[in-house]
Amino acid sequence: MSTTDPAALAATIAAVLAATQSEPAPAAAPATVLTVEEAADRLKVRRSLIYSQLRSGELRSIRLGRRRLIPAAEVDHIISEAA
């Protein structure tokens, strides 16, 4: 392909666009860990209740530096128990 040939360049661009538009975008992976605020939002409770459950051991968390991350499975488990 010559870069000076407009027809060939247009055909190449069209082929690349068609290939990228036909591939579906990958689905976003669900969050595997939640912040305290995200967990509170999902459970529709205050952050203080989440911290209380973390202190009492009712809710497991992962400590990353100063942050507490809560496995989404823990929150899902609480929701399924309440149902």
Automatic annotation (TrEMBL):
<feature type="domain" description="Helix-turn-helix">
    <location>
        <begin position="33"/>
        <end position="80"/>
    </location>
</feature>
<dbReference type="Pfam" id="PF12728">
    <property type="entry name" value="HTH_17"/>
</dbReference>
<protein>
    <recommendedName>
        <fullName>Helix-turn-helix domain-containing protein</fullName>
    </recommendedName>
</protein>
<dbReference type="InterPro" id="IPR041657">
    <property type="entry name" value="HTH_17"/>
</dbReference>
<dbReference type="GO" id="GO:0003677">
    <property type="term" value="F:DNA binding"/>
</dbReference>
<dbReference type="InterPro" id="IPR010093">
    <property type="entry name" value="SinI_DNA-bd"/>
</dbReference>
